[in-house]
Write a structure and sequence with these properties.
This protein is mostly beta strands. The chain is built from no helices and 25 strands.
C-alpha cells in the first residue's frame, strides 16, 4: 500500500484478482518514462487511505508521458479521490499518445470521498477514451467531477481540454455531478444520470455508435423550470436502423440550443 512509481520500462498487468495501491504514477527519477498499464480483468483499487503518502504533484492514477501506454480490455479500475493534492489535480490523468491507447472493455469508477473543503473539484484530464465510466460521490455531494485540462509530474506534463469520450456506458450516480466545463461529452452506449445525480447545463452531448442505446435523465424531479436538462448541442449519429430511447421522470424537459441527428 505505497505509491507505485515506474522507472525506465515497466508493464503493469492485471488479468484476475485484486490489486490495491494508494497511487500509480510515472517515475520522475528514471531517464525514460516508458511504461504500460494493461488490464484485462480483476479489480485494481487506487485509494490514498491505503497509506504511503501519495505525491500531491501527481493525480492518483497518472500516466503523464505520451509514450506511456494504457490498454484496458476488461476488469474494473476504481480510483478514490480524497484531495491528496490540495485540490489542484484529481483522480485520473492520462496523456498517452493515440498510438499507445487500446480501450475495448472494462469499467473505470471514479469516486470522490472525504474531500475538504466542500466544493472541491475532481478533475478528469485524459486524452484516452474510457469504455464504461461510473462517476460516484460518497461524500457530501458538493464536489463536481470536472472534465478539464491539467498539469502533472516532474518535468511538468500538460493535457489540454479534451472531450470526455465513453465507448460504452456512462453512469452518473446519485449524489455525483458531471461538470463538462464546455467540453464535448461523447457516449457510444447508454448514458444515465441517476435520481440525485446531475450534469451541469450547457453540455454539447453526442450520442454515437451503432446499436440501440438509452439516454436516461432521472435527475430532474418536480414540476417547474428547474426540471429542465439544458443542452447546448444535442447530436445523435447512429446507424440508420438504430434507436436512441430517451427516458425521464415526469415533467422533465430536454432543451437544446441545436439538435442534429
Amino acid at each position: 500500500h505505497y505509491p507505485l512509481r515506474r522507472q525506465r520500462q515497466m508493464c503493469i498487468r492485471d488479468r484476475d484478482g485484486n490489486v490495491e495501491l494508494n497511487q500509480l504514477r510515472t517515475s520522475s527519477i528514471g531517464p525514460e518514462h516508458k511504461g504500460a498499464y494493461v488490464q484485462g480483468g480483476g479489480l485494481v483499487t487506487i485509494d490514498n487511505n491505503f497509506g504511503g503518502n501519495a505525491s500531491g504533484s501527481y493525480y492518483l492514477f497518472d500516466l503523464a508521458e505520451p509514450d506511456n501506454s494504457f490498454r484496458m480490455t476488461g476488469g474494473t479500475l476504481h480510483v478514490k479521490y480524497e484531495r491528496h493534492d490540495g485540490g489542484t489535480r484529481g483522480p485520473i490523468f492520462l496523456n498517452c499518445a493515440t498510438t499507445n491507447q487500446e480501450v475495448t472493455g472494462g469499467t473505470v469508477i471514479l469516486e470522490v470521498d472525504n474531500t475538504t473543503p466542500a466544493n472541491a473539484v475532481a478533475r478528469i484530464s485524459s486524452t484516452v477514451p474510457f469504455y464504461n465510466l461510473t462517476l460516484r460521490n460518497t461524500d457530501d455531494g458538493s464536489q463536481d467531477f470536472r472534465v478539464s485540462g491539467g498539469s502533472s509530474g516532474s518535468p511538468v506534463r500538460t493535457v489540454g481540454n479534451e472531450p470526455l469520450v465513453v465507448k460504452g456506458d456512462l453512469l452518473v450516480e446519485s449524489n455525483a455531478t458531471l461538470d463538462h466545463n464546455s467540453n464535448n461529452v461523447e457516449v457510444y452506449g447508454d448514458f444515465e444520470i441517476q435520481n440525485g445525480g446531475d450534469m451541469l447545463n450547457g453540455c454539447n452531448l453526442y450520442m454515437l455508435g451503432t446499436g440501440n442505446s438509452n439516454l436516461s435523465f432521472n435527475n430532474k424531479t418536480g414540476s417547474n423550470t428547474n426540471t429542465e436538462q439544458r443542452l447546448n448541442y444535442f447530436i445523435v449519429d447512429k446507424g440508420v436502423e438504430d434507436t436512441l430511447f430517451i427516458y425521464a421522470v415526469s415533467y422533465t424537459h430536454l432543451r437544446a440550443h441545436e439538435t442534429r441527428g
